[in-house]
Write the structure tokens for this entry.
Amino acid sequence: MSDDGSPSLVSARYGEGYRSRHGARSESWHVFVAGSGVAARLASAIPTTVLELGLGTARNLGASAAVAFAFDTPLRYVAFEHDLLGADEWASLERDALGPHAFRSALLEARRSWDTTPGTRHTLCVGPVTLEIHLADARAATWPRGVDAVYLDGFSPTVNPELWTDEVLGRVASHLAPGGTVASYCVQGRVRRALESAGLRVEKRPGPPGGKREVLWARRPSERTTVAGPPLDPARSLAGTRIAIVGAGVAGRSLAWAATRAGATVAVFDASDGHAGASGVPAALVNPYRGRAGRASDDDLHGAERTWAWAAHLTGAGLDPGAHPTGVVRGADGSRQARTWSARPGALPFGPEPTPAPGRWRAPHGGMLVRRGGWIDTSRWLVALRCATAAHGGLDRPATPVTGLAPVAGGGWHLQVDSATAGPSVDTYDLVTLCLGASPPGALPHLPVTAVAGTVALVAGHLPARPLAGAVYAAPVGSPARHGLDPLRPWFAVGGGHGDSLEDAEGAAGLLATLARSLPAAPTAADEWTVSATWRGVRARGPDPQPQVERLAPGVWWFGAFAGRGFLRAALEAERLVERWARGAA
Ligand SMILES: Cc1cc2nc3c(=O)[nH]c(=O)nc-3n(C[C@H](O)[C@H](O)[C@H](O)COP(=O)(O)OP(=O)(O)OC[C@H]3O[C@@H](n4cnc5c(N)ncnc54)[C@H](O)[C@@H]3O)c2cc1C
Ligand SMILES: C[S@@+](CC[C@H](N)C(=O)[O-])C[C@H]1O[C@@H](n2cnc3c(N)ncnc32)[C@H](O)[C@@H]1O
């Protein structure tokens, strides 16, 4: 069992562990899948070819397949292995080590029937993944060209020198596509120099917290250079500060990215494996003009501006953050409301009809187009933040419920985690931030929040070009596969219907009826709408409408209560909090 609670195996032939004893799962994700940029590519729907030297326990394969499945992006994975492990050995790892269920079961079943004669090659196609395994000494085999990433993952050069020769490393470099990357846990000077002299740009990057201090990243130059986010303010750096963030919703993810950009070493813990909290909402509006008065506070306007600035930044770094600054349409309930709204700066008044509302929404009294508004494909946004954080050395600890905090003599905090799933944690942090959303109070310190439940209906069909805000909101669903929907059909989400509990939240039929009243009378698509799924979630609201950002104890912070505007405000509030820490407020 490694330190992050994930099991690994030891090779009888080489006398070395297949993965780091400091965290098998986190090494796989941090060094290879995120570190190489493969996760970011797949999350951005860019088909990707990976070459792996040393398939071993297939952990890197499983973690890569998980991202390909989540985003339905083609992944070609070519691996060499001259000492193939058996299906039972692979199956002895934790359940999701081999990727999503469909992939794991197909892989294990195929493995049971494979001929393991040296020189044999096996192919397996499952969902978006095409796997080619060559049972051969990597040195003797033919390699694919134009590879997007090489996972250089032999055993250490001491026991497995043949995978680290100048010749093999030169071959790695020459089989990369322009812009292709190499990832490895090994940072030996000789290995770095060999890759450099083969024309690659080579860097030592921070390793997984609790694991190796530095890991290797190399890249074949291309005309298109990746823009990494500049630090927020180099003069106020958080370099050397270790921060634990508990909760991987939009609050925690935003804070993690802002903090790593300021130089902090960050680990993000979440009880679940996916987007379990309110941030799992299938589509989110970014709409600063809210309420019946259609007013925008300065913070909401600033929040929208920072959200779109982050989107540009993430896009510049080669990620697809799923951000659509399309503007948002609001139809007025009466002419008085329309007149009030027409005075709002940053909003474009329109109507009343027959002047058409933008995007053919029905607006008999007119309304406004919120120019600074738009919508976000929430899962792309969260994965882009996760990848950008990992690229700055952040570590992810999914499926790790935090059960308590213990002060450390001399300063800092230990996190207590549920050892049944994650193993004991020995890490110490200078700062811990609780981003727990509407999770009920447990052993962790907690501020008072009210839980507000809401419903989102997922409907097959097209929407007018711009999303709608009003009694209900409507926006496209950017990642239908994440919600079990057919990715080849168009989908939109209708949200609203808030209640005190999940049972009280309005049902899909009511939401659709309200939406239908907002659409043009003819032609209407309403007859063709079918609700295929309903998502329900609970968000946290503080005693006032503002987000709660508070120090609970020295080094322990609360960051939450974003109510219905997490995607509007989290970027701004995260930057503000990091600025406060950098000024010494920890
Ligand atoms: C129906 C509905 C529609 C919405 N529409 C919009 C919209 O259009 N635009 C918009 O901006 N916002 C919208 N929101 C609001 C938005 O979703 C929230 O403001 C935001 O998601 C809150 O993010 P968070 O990170 O604070 O909380 P969450 O996303 O709830 O994240 C909290 C995380 O903490 C984790 N956690 C809890 N306890 C522990 C523990 N002990 N250890 C480890 N992890 C733990 C949970 O697993 C969870 O992942 C909507 C919300 C709902 C419910
Ligand atoms: C550190 S392990 C790889 C771990 C693996 N990537 C994972 O995710 O679990 C190294 C692997 O490289 C294999 N290997 C070592 N030398 C090799 C060679 N010359 N050709 C092919 N495979 C080799 C070993 O058998 C072993 O499975």
Q: What stands out?
A: Residues 18-19, 28, 52, 54-60, 80-83, 137-139, 153-155, 160, 162-163 surround S-adenosylmethionine (ligand 2) (CB under 6 Å). The longest helix spans residues 566-585. The domain at 280-377+450-541 is CATH 3.30.9.10 (D-Amino Acid Oxidase; Chain A, domain 2).
